[in-house]
Amino acid sequence: MSSTATAKKQPSSGPVLDWTAGHGPVTGALSATTGAFAIATTGAATAMPPAWALAVGAAGALGHTVVGLRVRNAGRTLATRAASWLVGAGWTTWAMTHGPLTWAALGSLATVGVGIGAAARSSALFEEAREEEAIAAERRLVAAELSAERRAIATEWVDRIQRVCSLTVRVLGVEMWETGTGFSLDAELPPGGATYAKIASESARLSADARLPHGCNAIASPGIHQGRVIIDVTTVNVLEEERTYPTDYGPLSVHTGIPWGYRTNAENILAYLREQCALVVGPTGSGKTNMVHAILAGFARAEDVLTWVIDLNAGSAGLPWVLPALNGQIQTGDGKPVRPGVDWLAGTFDEAMLMLETAVKVAKQRKMGYQDLLSKANTDLLPISSRIPQIMLVIDEGAEILASADRQMRKMAEKILEVIRIARAMGLRTVLTALGATGSVLGNLMIRREAKVRVALTGGETEGMDLSKMFPGTRGLRVDQAPYKGSGFMGTPESPAALFKAWRILPNQIRDITAATSERHPVLDDVSVKAAGPAYARRWDTDRTAWMREQAPGNDTDAGGYGPASGLKLSALNEGVGQASPEDEMLARFRAEIDAEFATAPDPHAPTEQAPSAAPGGLNLSALREEQQDNSAQQAALALLLAAGTDGTGASAIARALADEYGTTRQTVVGWLKTWVSDGTAVRVGEGTKARYVHHRHTPGPPPGQ
Ligand SMILES: Nc1ncnc2c1ncn2[C@@H]1O[C@H](COP(=O)(O)OP(=O)(O)OP(=O)(O)O)[C@@H](O)[C@H]1O
């Protein structure tokens, strides 16, 4: 109803003549002939003067020609279209005079239609060919200019190599880098046994002769066969500038490589770690910590990697990936709690040993548990995926652990080497960092064989930087080529050692990546979870993460920039227990008391020498290990107290609820309740058998003593 009304209201605008409307040869001809036929029949019926048809045809021809000129149609196309209009108009005029409904009129109209179609088709083909030719001509022009530039470069470098190396090479190709930061020459060496090495050894002189800017160089490497050489020439120094970690935090995979930084040609360099371990050497101040963060960022982005970090230097490498999540400072888009950016962080000797022992157990269990899968896939290499993730163990200053003479450290070193030795096929690999490329690290056969992804961050440091040991067989690498923080050399089995730089990554990016990747992290496969047991399942328990609180910002740490520590939100990780930070704080206080007691007592598990990791004032986890069971029961009791709301609950009810799982007695619960009343966590209501305990959150007003 309303649409009819609207249609009625619209003023009649008559036939719309769209001169730009597109037509193919068939639709064009059809449109022309049916249009002409319609005009002729209506014209004849209404006794329209035939000259009108001619006038319309002339206007049509003119209209199409004007539009055609505007869109730069070929003259031939313009002529075809104008002729179509005029022929159509001629026929219409004739048919209106002689009657359109005669065999002669209809036959000639059909002929006109076919004619217009054929002409349109031929003009369309011509138009297409003309366009293609124009594009090709443009390309030829660009190519000619480019090849003129390439020819000039080739001639210049043939002369230069002759001058500096006394070799007459023939340049077969010049490839300009897409990044615009240099080019590569592919050249044939002269007959007589010249090798690429002769040019490689003159890299510095060639760079000087070419007047390359500082930080740029000409590096020769083997060509397609021994008589050919590739010379990469950088003309823009990308190592000098600071580039931040790319903000595309899209998913990655261990199979397709993890970007660790960029080359002098500004291209990403990828680390392929499915089978390889890695060694990152960087003296203090070279940008090693930053590089570790860039590495952790890549692992966090991967859909098939779980990262376990050992950092005995108070966990500073891993903390920025854990604290913002545990402190509840970041959230996913839909407000869910964020999983830490690393899957396990060990900052103490005991926790690190636990992690390494777990890694060995997981590797062994995977070997047995996945026999079927391996035989079905006809491989001895466990198919890593998001369902069976690779475990990347990042051990900061791990190389120093390997080189240590300390008895405890030697124990740990053995475990690290065991993981490296047994776990390649089962998807556990390590990234070790080192302050220096010491002989004792690189002298280790296992490291030499398994850790072929290597990074030497120089940052201008020359001390302890033996590049020939880090990258044996590679010539022409000099520390002074990479004087910038975060820059150095990187070599992998896929990409020979050469200059590179790590991206600068700032704490806010770490937080962003942690949030962006939270739901992407895989979970440990069942086979591994079973092998890992409680050591893994309880890795975020309050007592095991208490040391992190000690290191939290606000307690004067270098983890820097993460806001005030507001208590770890471990409840997000211990799903089901449902505790919030006040409880955690209380538990920490409780454990601090135990620690104060135990720290003075001889610890049967304690190292003979204090491990460098043991943070002063940190919890004595060895002593606490035996309390683990009690602590879990106590957490559960607290959860029950909280759940009881304003009604509160009693010691007997709590003990009954815990008896099956923990075997907790009423007497123990009474002890806890007393402590909680005295520290303000709970309030006692009523007397005697009516006595109940209410969590302070459910009592009106502030808790006593506050
Ligand atoms: N990739 C990089 N690009 C630019 N600047 C960087 C880069 N990496 C590090 N830096 C600069 O170098 C400084 C030191 O970096 P970082 O803390 O990572 O070094 P480090 O080798 O771990 O030193 P330390 O052992 O003293 O902590 C940073 O504060 C930053 O200013």
Automatic annotation (TrEMBL):
Chain segments carrying region Disordered: 1-20
Domain annotation FtsK: ranges: 266-466
Extent of Polar residues compositional bias: 1-13
Nucleotide-binding in keyword set: yes
Keyword Oxidoreductase (UniProt): no
Keyword terms: ATP-binding, Nucleotide-binding
Domain of life: Bacteria
Residues the record lists as binding ATP: G282, P283, T284, G285, S286, G287, K288, T289
GO MF terms held by the record: ATP binding; DNA binding
Name of the protein described by the UniProt record: FtsK domain-containing protein
Naturally occurring in which organism (per UniProt): Streptomyces fuscichromogenes
